[in-house]
Write a structure and sequence with these properties.
209 residues, alpha/beta, Elongation Factor Tu (Ef-tu), domain 3, Rossmann fold, six-stranded antiparallel beta sheet, five-stranded parallel beta sheet, 24% helix
Length: 209
């Protein structure tokens, strides 16, 4: 989909320095959990664009992105100040990592928790099993993670690489592996999967750079 203006339905704080934007789904927008959009805005006269992965399990009526807010950033503070009824411009979706069906084991580092909860919720909604291993010392989306646990999913929150390795060893065979996070986390996740006897080449991986 080409650049399209969409309306902000809601902005919510979901963790330390982390917000979600709920956006009205435009016509002809067809995205799956795990894919991402390019968001454009004009801030102080400057055109800025960033990529954000969907963090909602579907796109019915609205869809959601999760944003880590850097006080010194050029776009995220502006997004945090949006209100219901404001508009932003998106294009996409992009990306080959997308949930279709079946059991999942999702490994998330930092902001990767956004797409992680979206993928896991989509799996649970269709009756499949979902596992999340989430590495962060200041977790976000805790309410949705708790709700996933209540629905039967497995959620492990760890603080370091050793914790990641130990947790992944227990879940490496729980389903299709998805990995979301910055490149350093992706490398740690690769080491953890291989240490657990898994095949990282079969994982669906999105690195945030």
């Amino acid at each position: 989909m080409d650049e399209t203006e969409v309306t902000v339905r809601a902005v919510a704080t979901v963790g330390p320095g982390t917000i979600t934007l709920e956006l009205e789904t435009p016509a002809d927008f067809d995205a799956k959990p795990g894919q991402f959009v390019r968001l454009h805005a004009t801030v102080d006269g400057e055109e800025i664009a960033r990529y954000y992965t969907l963090s909602s399990p579907d796109i019915e009526e609205t869809f959601e992105i999760t944003v880590g807010v850097d006080p010194e950033g050029d776009l995220s503070p502006w997004l945090a100040d949006r209100e219901s009824g404001d508009t932003v411009t998106i294009e996409g979706p992009f990306g080959n990592v997308a949930y279709d069906e079946g059991d999942v084991a999702v490994l998330a580092g930092g902001p990767g928790v956004g797409p992680a909860v979206g993928v896991a919720e989509a799996a649970v909604a269709e009756g499949s099993e979902a596992t999340i291993v989430y590495q962060d010392d200041a977790p976000a989306h805790e309410q949705r993670l708790d709700a996933l646990v209540d629905s039967g999913a497995t959620v492990r929150i760890v603080e370091n690489k050793q914790g990641l390795t130990d947790a992944v060893r227990e879940v490496v065979d729980d389903g299709q592996i998805y990995v979301f996070g910055f490149q350093t986390f992706v490398e740690d996740a690769r080491d953890a999967v291989e240490a657990g006897g898994g095949d990282f080449s079969e994982a669906e991986v999105e690195s945030f750079g």
